Automatic annotation (TrEMBL):
Residues 1-10 have a biased composition (Polar residues). Residues 1-28 are annotated as: Disordered. Residues 14-27 have a biased composition (Basic and acidic residues). The keyword Transmembrane applies. Keywords: Membrane, Transmembrane, Transmembrane helix. Pfam families: DUF3105 (PF11303). This is DUF3105 domain-containing protein.
Length: 219
């Protein structure tokens, strides 16, 4: 039993380290491409991204017509979305049927999710794109104890393909979300956090496994 747990832990650490090396390699390639690109092209891309994000923020939320279904809660406490989740890139904000959203139509720009901790609420349409890339999203509201928030932030910072942000619209103090899956946890010491990370960080549910968690939006 003890040996099996050690092997599982070692395998998980090896998988996370492999993902971190892959992210670092992507970052190096991105820096090289950025340096060699012309200033005019870079400026145009940045301006275009800002325009799209601002436009999305100004528009009224649109219903995600392609998303349908409902949650089914398993014996392990994880809620799984049974139905369809849209995957179309949109420029407007989306009215998701759950908070935080577990998937659906989303913006073409993702939130950086290489262990990124945000202190302000995120645009759901960008965070959902991170979920599509296989990230786990940790969210908390004002009822979450500061000690738990700090401990969770430290954990996220050490784990590739994760991100964290406040969300005062959610029902429970601390929630974990992956594409199509979600659960509530009692605090930073809840063992279900490690279980959820192990299963859903770049897990089988990922629509685009191996897609980047860097090179997106940082705020």
């Amino acid at each position: 039993m003890g040996s099996a747990k050690k092997n599982t832990s070692a395998a998980r650490k090896a998988r996370i380290e492999e993902m971190r090396r892959a992210e670092q390699s992507r970052e190096r390639r991105s820096r090289i491409l950025t340096i060699t690109a012309s200033t005019v092209v870079v400026a145009a891309l940045v301006a275009g991204t800002v325009f799209l994000v601002q436009s999305q923020s100004d528009d009224e939320p649109a219903a995600d017509a392609k998303t349908s279904g409902s949650f089914v809660t398993g014996s392990d406490g994880v809620k799984t979305w049974k139905g369809t989740l849209g995957r179309t890139h949109v420029t407007k904000s989306v009215a998701y049927p759950m908070e935080p959203p577990v998937g659906g139509d989303h913006h073409q720009a993702w939130m950086n999710c290489n262990g990124d901790v945000y202190t302000k609420a995120l645009n759901n349409v960008n965070a959902v794109h991170s979920l599509e890339h296989g990230a786990v999203w940790v969210t908390y509201n004002s009822k979450a104890p500061k000690a738990d928030v700090d401990a969770l932030a430290a954990k996220v910072k050490k784990t590739p393909y994760t991100l964290m942000s406040p969300d005062d619209k959610q029902a429970d103090p601390i929630m974990l979300t992956a594409w199509g899956h979600q659960r509530t946890v009692t605090g930073a010491s809840d063992p279900n956090i490690d279980t959820f990370f192990e299963k859903y960080v770049q897990g089988e549910q990922t629509p685009e496994p191996g897609a980047a968690c860097t090179g997106g939006l940082s705020k």
